[in-house]
Amino acid sequence: MSTPERSSFTTRPDASGRRWRRIFLIIGAAVFVYALLAPLTSTDAAQAIGVPLLADRLWFRIATIIAMFAVMASAWNIIGGLTGYAAFGNVAFFGIGAYTTGMLIAKAKWPFFAALPAAPLASAAFATLIGVPLLRLRGHYFAVASLGTGVAVGEVIQNVDFRGHPVFGGSTGLFLPIVGRDITYFYLMVGAAVLTVAVTWWVLRSRFGYGLIAIRENEEAAAVMGVDTTAYKVSAFALAAALTGLAGGIFAQWNVFINQENVFPIEYNIQMILMALIGGAGTLFGPIIGAVLLQLLIQFLSGSLPISADIPFVPADARPVLAQVILGLLVVAVVVFVPRGVIDFFGGQSRLSLGYLRRSLRETSV
Amino acid sequence: MSAPVATAQLELQGVTKRFGGVAALDGVSFSCREGEILGIIGPNGAGKTTLLNCISGVHRLDAGDIRWRGESISGRPPHRIASLGIGRTFQVVKPFASMTVRENAAVGALFGSAEAHLPPKLAFQRADEVLELVGLAAKAALPVTALTIPDRKRLEVARAVATKPRLLLLDEVMAGLNHVEVDEALEMVRAVHATGVTIVLIEHVMRVIVGVCERAIVLHFGKLLAEGEPREVLRDRRVIEAYLGERYARQQEG
Amino acid sequence: MAYIVQLVVLGLLIGGVYVAVGVGFGLVWGVLNIVNLSHGALVIVGSYLTWKLFSSYGLDPFLSLPLDAALLFGIGYALQRLLINRVIRAPLLFTFLLTFGVNLVIINVLLFLFKSDFRSVTPSYAGAGLNLGPLVLPYTRLASLAIALLLAGILGLILGRTRTGLAIQAVGADRDAAQLVGIDLRHIYALTFGLGAACAGVAGGLIALIQAITPTAGEPYTLQAFVVVILGGLGRVSATVVGGLLFGLIEVFAQSIPGSGSVYANAIAFGLLVLVLVTRPQGLLGRKP
In Å, how far are A79, A236, A342, C283 from A135, measured between CA atoms? Predict the structure, then answer.
């Protein structure tokens, strides 16, 4: 009886749950392989067979965005899901990564593949710096302080100037030279997502991961058991930051234009958390699933998908606003109706029935 | 039977801890030899748990010093104290709720003292060993939330033992157990002690103190009231007064 | 020297707004343990009501304040009773997310209704001010400070001298004990949130006089309210008053440093927040945690 435990202690589904999980895993793997290979076929060939979607430029633009959020949600999962410190300002690291790469390319004329590794490094460094004081806080204090980080960093980067000239391009932003094709960035972003999942997988079965989860479950007991809680928390934070920064760095070159608005949007914070929660915070693939589902929904509502239908009574230019409203309502709905359910994703109960929802409501209501 | 003068393994000198204006511990000094089983007793609020918290680094001292094998350890963070070989349990058990019994115990082995700190594979082996020691081997794969309170207390002990401590601080492990469960827990403590671990235990159940402790100290309002062999300490007038009041003590005497 | 006095006066006047924004936020946080991320949005709703009444019906903005309070009280009561009460015993993350979702909905509904154009409220007396030597103190700002302090005073009176207020304090002190003495938790929770929202509404009305409003203009106020409450100390209205005035002073002095400007509003708030939390988490007047 001395085989090492499999590391999935955050979800332990029962027999039928395991079956569903296997089914979804197989379907997911198939979709993933298709997504990976389809862009390599030429548009003509694809259309000849009648195979749609990913051969279409628009679709793998969407897919790239989905991969980007998959990275962010999975990265957040490391500090929020595994360690239990729900950071609300991780978009700061996305922006820092984007601006690091952006500045190195635009101002210092570095080539992209040299500038990209600097992004996770810069984000991790900043996270380590800010993490030491920040992670001493708990609950509300940590949440708002981390929210403030996201906001403040964006503000500083947009406004700081040196002798009258904005250091980081100010409100006009940074322009990067166009390098490579869309498809390159698709694979890069997917690669980053794969990397993030691989890192999470490694963390979950390592001493580091057990330490993080111990911190989440009971920080005092973890400390007394010998876990260096400060070092571990800051490391998790820095790791999450690095991966998020990597996504930012890729985005910078892909989008060829960055400014405060497109790399420090506050909504990204909530989206990455929501994605991790919906899919299952603390699990390996949960954030990925959540990212795919939520991002597809948001894109559909904003009218950005080729198959977006017209929504009655809503003019086209109001679609983004509507998307945000629905997102807000979705947040509210998820939080109200599935709070216990989401936690139970940790514990593995994957059965969502009406009675279950009713019971969970009773537990959290006053 | 005169024992050779053994150097103290754990030594407290003038330990004082205040919360607001109240001194939870006031100038407490005692020492503990290697391999000993020392009991700490005292009425509620006497400062017993605070004492353990100070030793394990959860609280910082306001005055005084704590020495471990000759070295001062006061002011060190809890995980450092754990790595030195001091393990503890909590009065209100603190299991890692989303893990199984086995994983909980493994956390002790993954971290813990310098002798522990095992890689995952070996840590789980050690987890199995300690679960065997405390009698939880059959329930290893269960989630912690499925355990009864007595079993959770056992797990708490197992987890602490997994850290390969030289000194184990037990905080009211017997609380809430019935007669039979206390006997089983006593066996468990003896078994742990037999592996060479020094044990300091806080208890209210006098049967345990008398049954397993070689020495006992009594705390009252943060001060050390009495020290010595358990039976003698329990007969001490001051101790009886502290627990049961002055009038009862006088009645007992006269 | 006169310059310093000018800054101090300006700081206090600005602080008035922060007091108004902070007291409602602090009430909800102190009693319900909810950090309401939609607070800024509620403030802006008040601003829009004031603006609408002014621009469509010519109602003097100061007269619209009670209406702001009433509307926002209703909204707040409903929000708490119907939504927030359902998750209040869940982990903090969820109330956080919930109020964020509400924030998103409110802002975007406002965007839908009013678009993102900037609106302002400029009554006839907008430009006039009190002349005190070299200083010109705008009447609107003076009145704002006075009303903010009045608001805090009224809130303090309600909490300390009325039955309802005592019930609120009881619930904040010990929820279970309060239930045991017969207090209807659901109602008191909703009432408390409603009161906090009402204060936000009044703050919004005052803000409409001082700056141009747009649906997202309330965002910075949420973070600033948080800092104000922490600065003063969670738990008492008087502490929040101190925190608000102090925050106003700090902001004015920070912005008087050449090279910086109002663009760093959030960064200043955040920096101050981290500083206070790391050095003196109980704030100036709060009790030690």
Answer: 10, 11, 24, 19
